[in-house]
Amino acid sequence: MTIKPDPSTEIPAELGNVHFVGIGGSGMSGIARLVLGDGHRVTGSDVRDSANVQALRELGAEIAIGHDAANLPDDVDTVVVTGALWQDNPEYRLALERGVPVLHRSQALAALIGGRRLVSVAGAHGKTTSTGMIVTGLLALGARPNFVNGGVIEGLGVSAAAGDGELFVVEADESDGSFLLYDTSVALITNVDPDHLDHYGSREAFEQAFVDFADRARELVVISSDDAGALRVTERLSHANIVSFGEAEGATVRVHSIETDGPVAFALSYQGAEYRARLRVPGRHNAINAAGAFAVLVGLGFDPQLALDGIAGFAGTGRRFELHGTVGGVSVYDDYAHHPTEVAAALAAARTVVGEGRIIAVHQPHTYSRTQAFAKEFAEVLERYADETVVLDVYGAREDPVPGVTGALVSERFDDAERVAFIADWQEAADHTAQIARDGDFVITLGCGDVYRIVPQLLASLERQRG
């Protein structure tokens, strides 16, 4: 059983010395960065070293690798945990035994937000990019928001930073219901594609959480006009101020004239006026994300054209179609996509810029429950959008293994078995990928587990094969 947020937990008035268990994660590291910036002593632990861990150490955090009760300082005042931890974690158990306040990361973030004007970005996918677009736009408009994102914002080099104004922008996590803990002023819902059903139990319960999230927003709800789940949520809302965005004819902010040849260009229709932009990132889905960010910024009171111009400066986020190197004419990218809709969007975006080359997907299924539920859908989108696919084994994350659930569940559902290979061994997978790659191809790793760690092996195999 993993650690779930407990809404009844009392948040201390002063956090004091703070220990983060699982400090290296994208969300946890961002919160730790803000806590350090507030002058607190920060300690922590993680299962492995990483760029996030190194960056926090440079800011003064004391971080141990590996989870051990000995990592918990004697003078700790508050412990912050991530929902990815099991309840038998030794540092978590010792904190409970000592009576030290233990906060889920969402509760620690709520403490940092305080009474600021909060923009919460939620949705099954698109959150990190949309949050990055909003932050980039606000900075271009002269605002200096506080923010915590789920990925590093290119151009800023960080996933979180303290600002000097009333605005606070966060990527709000729906996976365990923790987005309901925030006192949100402006809610952006990118989509309500069914996910995390291991927590919610049913699509209806998943969608009800979004209804509750939106109706609690103090000022404004911005929600997709195109996504079926978002439309069902919209029908159930009682909020007085709802703005829709997307390609649908009736959208308040309507996207049209989308050009996907290279970095995406598009037009927006809003309140009888037309606005145009070309982004620095590819993909039709990013035109839609930009429309949602635009709706948020104009909803906050900013000039429409200036807001869109600011968003157009967004250069992407870490682990979202991120180029890691090119060897012998083969480019290796990494993307966080771990749901069929996300995989389709990432590969469709790659298709617009790969030219005459092919797309080779290296897919790591994430969690046994999601793999079991969506194996057919993953196979369909991979076969449709990639020319070749290598499927790795399942990254279990917070879940125990399920007998019979492996990456083969995905590969076996391909119609054309010649275009897919299930290879559990990473070195074999890297070597196979290098052998089938040709000049001009894109290799794209896909998944929100640790699949990014295979990238050096892919580059090395390509160097041996083609260097």
TrEMBL record:
This is UDP-N-acetylmuramate--L-alanine ligase. Gene3D superfamilies: Mur ligase, C-terminal domain, Mur-like, catalytic domain, NAD(P)-binding Rossmann-like Domain. The lineage of its organism: Bacteria, Bacillati, Actinomycetota, Actinomycetes, Micrococcales. ATP binds at residues 123-129. Residues 121-296 form the Mur ligase central domain. Keywords: ATP-binding, Cell cycle, Cell division, Cell shape, Cell wall biogenesis/degradation, Cytoplasm, Ligase, Nucleotide-binding, Peptidoglycan synthesis. NCBIfam families: murC. Its EC number is 6.3.2.8. Belongs to the MurCDEF family. It comes from Agromyces soli. Cell wall formation. GO terms for molecular function: UDP-N-acetylmuramate-L-alanine ligase activity. It catalyses: UDP-N-acetyl-alpha-D-muramate + L-alanine + ATP = UDP-N-acetyl-alpha-D-muramoyl-L-alanine + ADP + phosphate + H(+). Residues 319-449 form the Mur ligase C-terminal domain. It is an enzyme of class 6 (ligase).
